Amino acid sequence: MSTTNAKTNTRLTPLSIICLNEQGKIIFDSGLGNQPVIKVLATDRTWLADIQRTRLGSLEIEGKKLLVLWSPLESGSLLAFRESPGEAVFDFIAAVDFAFDIFEHLLSNPFDAMTVVDHNAIVRFISPIHEEFFRHSRGEALGRPVQKVIENTRLHTIVQTGKAEIGHIQKMRGDARVVSRTPIFRGDKIVGAIGRIMFKGPQQLDELNQRINNLENEVAFYKRQAEAMRNQENGLDAIIGESNRIRDLKKDIIRIAPLDVPVLIVGESGVGKELVAQSIHRLSSRRNHAMIMINAAALPATLVESELFGYSAGAFTGASQKGHLGKFEQANQGSLFLDEIGDMPLDVQAKLLRVLQDGSVEKLGGTKPVKVDFRLISATNRDLDAMVEVNSFRLDLFYRISPVVLRVPSLRERLEDIPALAMKFLAEFADRHGRDLCKITDAAVQYLQAKPWPGNIRQLKHELERAAIFTTTGTIKPEDFRSERKMPSDDIKIPNGGIGQADNVSFNLPEQIEKLEQRAIAAAMEKHDGNKKRVAEELNISRSYLYKKLSDMGFEDQS
Description:
Radius of gyration: 40 Å
Distance between the termini: 106 Å
Shape: elongated
């Protein structure tokens, strides 16, 4: 349709209309509609047929560029005139006589849905396919904030930042879609934004989702592989400290790790034996396979067979129809870490010995043995030599698990490592809880170095985290540790001169710590009726340390 030039002195109004009856006669006009040149065009059958065919056209009057829209009425038709919002729009409509069809296609395309929001991120238009996808009835979403209409949308962010996002992945109703989000400007001002989502046919969409999922899985795999490589290269980084004892321990780990022999790690509870085991595995030739961890003391007697050896499909009532891999098989080609092996019952020790001797396991309900090949790394806080003497640990198993023995020093033996450990634990605490990193004063470090640490590194970590929670200054001082809760045993009598609540004598720091330990032990002994095992577990100390403290306190019975 050609552009029409006309001259008039009439001021253009934002919107002008002409209504025509079925015979093509003007029955109503407003604005430009009452001007002779417009009326001539509106009643020209050739021009009217042209605009009726294209639905959308253009006019130029006194240098003003107008867009014309034709729409049918119940008994006639309507012509609407509005000034063009821009040169490109006018040129496009003037040059393309099917411009209306293009707009209709863009707005209703079932494979390329569109959402339009204004500068307040309120939905002003949403494609029919989009409404259907989000289960909205026709027009239901209009006038609502876009965040309440579209899952995981960012159009509200686009109208704030003015920055486009092209080719992003957006999860909606469990599916991943490729989206583009574009801000719309009028001059320098953001007037709204358009979001477009690519909908394809079911088969193509499934293929696209599959490719996206495959890519996400591949990225996750490479992340894990990169992390594993970093851990392999820095397998000793998790063992914090530069004291002579820790340096010697790290040197021993480097020497032992490449040798495919069993290792026994000994040390008090809480010294970090598991970290040593992980370092040995990561620096070994088996590092590309799993390290399976078992707490030997926590193995329930009724489930030992199925947990360690696994079972075949239908081996017993309630068994999985797919069977179950036991811990020994899971560790095949990798490492098996048996923590607290000193607490393993004798009957389980016999089963473990059989596996180490034969190199095979037989599942419950199975008909033939399965070969397994793993490196055994054990750990204990018990004195296995003494246990062998009283027949509570098998001598033949002891020889199997201890060709190499590594001793992890207690925290009392490496007090110079406390500053580095404190910084690590405080940094981890801050990162885990999204808080600012706490500092620690030299006086607080000295206070920590004066403590006996029966719970070792685990106890140090807990006390630092507690101090970080209760400090009000962001810097941990000695008094932040002294604010610990009073023990519930303040009024309990302790044999051989222990202090009770009535004591008002001022002691130096080591004496105060000693008395506090005595209170805690006395309270725990009373609570558990003298059960040493439960007392040690509650106080997070080794039994050997508990026996020593009880002897100092005058408890003669060490059973």
